[in-house]
């Protein structure tokens, strides 16, 4: 199988609006890496793609929501490779499949819809998830592909930057991308701040996303990066919850910059950037980088 990834991805300068007139804004266009396997999904799947290119993989098993960008990219790869893929989907089966689930079904993914309690157990108990994979004689890939291999794939992306940004904004689902960027920035000896804009509602509790990210850091034998800030104030109505306000915000940024965005992740990232510029409670510096994580099939 030959998956042609367009790397390095383009780094595009954006017009600075009035509310960000003191910043030079650029956007890392990972949405252009591949028509289907785009954004941070291509980065996370880098090692798996190499594996696919050298040998046929066995049955894979993963999990995600019904709009999971990672499952969408993984399903496409497995379909191209002829590798069986099964997926646990959070929630009850919808009467009508939206684009992501429809593609998964067309690509031959075995979908199993599970309740939130079961889903949470798969997420919080790696041993239990692995036991499910063992029963199905499958290779387990965690939610969002967030394991040590995926983290290393994300970290490689920072090597494409020639200039040190002052601040990087990136959307946060599982947190693997923000964590990988922050870790790699530290390894390069740069002082860039990484602001991870969390898109899930209620992910800031005792058993929230930061705990998952710390486990991922430990599994990769690394230390938590002190240049990473998680912002939970721009999740809106929650993950994948559309609203008229969110649609208006998406239209505003797309018209402003002529860059396609998605309402689940990248619009919320842009909202956070605008909020920081207007409130000025954090010094963003002159060089600001927005990291586009793809996911446009959700539109």
What would your notes on this structure say?
It is a single chain. The relative contact order is 0.16. The chain has 299 residues and is of the alpha/beta class. The protein has a six-stranded mixed β-sheet with strand order 1-2-10-7-8-9. The protein has a four-stranded parallel β-sheet with strand order 5-4-3-6, sandwiched between helices. The protein folds into two domains: 179 residues, Rossmann fold (3-Layer(aba) Sandwich), CATH 3.40.50.1100; 104 residues, Rossmann fold (3-Layer(aba) Sandwich). It is globular. The chain is built from eleven helices and ten strands. The mean pLDDT is 91. Strand 3, helix 3 and strand 4 form a beta-alpha-beta unit.
Stated plainly, the CATH topology of the largest domain is called: Rossmann fold
Quote the beta fraction: 15-25%
CATH level-1 class of the largest domain: Alpha Beta
Number of domains: 2
Summed up, the helix count is 11
Structural class: alpha/beta
Quickly give the CATH architecture of the largest domain: 3-Layer(aba) Sandwich
Backbone CA Rg: 18 Å
Distance between the termini: 28 Å
- Name the helix and strand elements from N-terminus to C-terminus, one letter apiece: EEHHEHEHEHHEHEHEHEHHE
Shape by Cα distribution: globular
Percent range of helical residues: 25-40%
Largest sheet: 6 strands, mixed
Which regions are unreliable across 5 or more consecutive residues at pLDDT < 50?
none
Order of the strands making up the biggest sheet: 1-2-10-7-8-9
DSSP strand count: 10
Could you tell me the mean pLDDT? 91
């Amino acid at each position: 199988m030959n998956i042609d990834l367009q790397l390095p991805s383009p780094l595009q300068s954006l017009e600075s609006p009035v509310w960000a007139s003191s910043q030079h804004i650029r956007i890392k266009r990972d949405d252009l890496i591949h028509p289907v396997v785009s954004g941070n999904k291509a980065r996370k799947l880098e090692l798996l793609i190499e594996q696919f290119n050298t040998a046929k993989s066995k049955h894979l098993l993963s999990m995600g929501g019904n709009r999971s960008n990672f499952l969408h990219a993984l399903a496409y790869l497995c379909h191209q490779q002829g590798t069986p893929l099964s997926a646990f989907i959070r929630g009850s089966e919808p009467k009508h499949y939206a684009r992501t689930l429809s593609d998964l079904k067309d690509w031959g993914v075995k979908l199993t819809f599970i309740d939130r309690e079961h889903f949470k157990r798969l997420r919080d108990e790696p041993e239990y998830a692995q036991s499910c994979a063992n029963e199905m004689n499958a290779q387990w890939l965690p939610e969002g592909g967030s394991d040590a291999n995926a983290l290393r794939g994300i970290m490689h992306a920072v090597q494409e930057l020639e200039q040190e940004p002052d601040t990087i904004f990136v959307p946060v689902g599982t947190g693997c991308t923000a964590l990988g960027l922050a870790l790699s920035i530290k390894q390069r000896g740069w002082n860039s701040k990484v602001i991870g804009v969390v898109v899930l509602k209620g992910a800031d509790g005792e058993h929230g996303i930061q705990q998952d990210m710390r486990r991922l850091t430990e599994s990769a034998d690394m230390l938590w990066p002190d240049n990473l800030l998680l912002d939970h104030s721009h999740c809106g109505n929650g993950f994948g919850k559309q609203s008229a306000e969110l649609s208006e915000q998406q239209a505003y940024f797309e018209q402003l910059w002529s860059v396609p965005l998605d309402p689940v992740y990248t619009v919320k990232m842009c909202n956070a950037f605008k909020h920081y510029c207007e409130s000025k409670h954090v010094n963003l510096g002159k060089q600001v980088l927005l990291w586009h994580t793809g996911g446009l099939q959700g539109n």
